[in-house]
Amino acid sequence: MPALKRDYVSIDDLGNEEILALFKVADRYNEDLKAWSSTCAGSILATLFFEPSTRTRLSFESAMLRLGGGVISATEGNATSAAKGESLADTARVVGGRYADIIVLRHSDEGAARIVANYAQVPVVNAGDGAHEHPTQTLCDLYTLYKEKGRLDGLEVLLAGDLKHSRTVHSLAWALARFEASLVLVPFPGLELPDNVLERIRRDWGADVTRADVGALSGLSQDKDAVYVTPHKPHQQSLFTAITAPQVDHIDAIYMTRLQKERFESEASASENASSYPKLGPKQLKEARFRETRVMHPLPRVDEISYDMDLDPRAIYFRQAELGVPIRMALLAFLLGVIDLGAPAPRRKNLPLYSSAVGLRCENVRCVTNREARKYAVPEFHILRDVPALLRCVYCDGEVEPKVVGHAESRRLHRGNAAESSRIRPERRVYFVDDAQAQAAGFGG
Ligand code: NCD
Question: How far is the CA of 391 from the centre of ligand 1 (A)?
Answer without folding.
Answer: 29
